[in-house]
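Data deposition worksheet. Section B asks for the primary sequence of the deposited chain exactly as it was used as input, without tags or linkers unless they were present during the calculation. Section C holds the resulting structure in C-alpha cell form. Section D is free text for depositor observations; keep each observation to a single sentence. Incomplete worksheets are returned to the depositor.
Section A, Depositor: J.P.
Section B:
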Amino acid sequence: MPDLTTEILRSRKEVFELESEYRELYDSLSCPNVYMSPEWVYTWLLSLGRSYEAWFLVCRDGGRLAGVWPFFEYRQPVFGTGLLPIGAQVADAFDPVARADCMETMSAALIHAAADHTFIWLPLVTLDFTQRVLKPALADLSPRHLLRKRTPRFLIGLDRFANAQDFQERVFGPKTRQSLRRKERKLHDAGEVSISFLEDPSLITPWLRKIMEVELASWKGERGVGIFRSASLRSFYHLLLENLAANNRFRLAIMTLGDRLAAYEIGLLGPDTYCMHSTSFDPEFAPFSPGRLLMLRSIERCMEEKRHVYDFMQNDQEFKRQMSTHESSLWDCILFPKSTKGALVSLLVRSIHGWNEWKKRRAKPSPGSPSRTPADSNTTSD
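Section C:
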C-alpha cells in the first residue's frame, strides 16, 4: 500500500532543490501535463515569476517524490493572498504532475489549504481530472467553491485515419479540398516554398526573433492578443522554447517563401501527443492560407510519428471544430475559505462571473476574432 504524505514548499531554495526529483518524476509518467513540465515551471520562476513567492504542494510515497502541484502566492492589498498555478498567464492546463494514485490525496490537501488563503484558482484543468478527481473531492469535503466549464477543447484522434490523405478526405468536403490545393499551387507559383520541422535548439534559436516579428505584424499583434505581446513575454518564451527544445519537448514548424517566413506553428511534444500551442502567419501571404497549409503538414508529421492525438487545446474556433474528431473541455475551479471574508469574495467572484456571462450572451461574435483572456495562449492560424 502507498505511504502517501503531503507537504508545502514555500522557499525558492526548497523549490529549486526539488528540480532534479521533479524531472525524474515527470519523465516517469506515461502522459504528464505538458504545461507543468519542469521547463515551464522553472523558466517561469526565473523570468515572469521573479517577484512572486513559490508555493509547491508536494506528495511523497515513503519519501519518494510522487506528485508536484506548483503554485505561487498572489498578494492583493484589499483581498489578501491567493494562490494561482505557476504559468497561469501563459499555460493552457494546470493538472498536477503526479501518479494517478496521488491525485486524490493532493486535491484534498489543496482544498484544505483554502482555509489559509483568500482564494485558490485553477483557471484551466482537464475534463478527465475534473470528473475523475476534482468533483469527487469537492463532493466529499464540501468546500466553498465555484466550478464551471471554462472552454471547449478540440482534438484529432490521429489513429482513426490511415494517412494524411484519408484525414483530408474524411474531414474536408470536396470544395474545401479543392480550395486548399488551389492555394497551395498559387503559393508555389509565388516562389520557392519550404517547410521544416525544427527540434534542435541550435536550429530553433535563429528563428525565434523572426516568429515574434511575424506575430507582431499579424492581427494578433494589432489586437495585443498574441503570446509575444509584451517584452516580458517575449523574454520568457525565448528562454522557455530553448529549454523545452533542449529536452525534446518542443517543435517549431516553419513555412518559408523564398527568404521570407510565411507561417509558423509552435508545438509541445508529449510521449504520444502533440499540443498546438500557437501559430501565426505573415498577413501579406493571407490569400494562400499558409497557416492552414502548414498545420496540415504538421498533422501529417504527427501521423508519421504514430502519435495518437493532435490537441488544439482551448478556445472554440470554427477551424478547430471542422478539423477535430472529438471534443473535450477545460474547467475552471476557484476555492474559497469557509469564513466571512471567503463568503464575500465568493459572492463578488460569482457576481463578476454572472455579469461576464450575461455580456457574452448579448455580444455578437466577430468572425476570426476569438475572445481572449490572460490565460489563453492557444491561437488560431488563418
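Section D:
The chain has 13 helices and 13 strands.
The chain has a mean pLDDT of 91.
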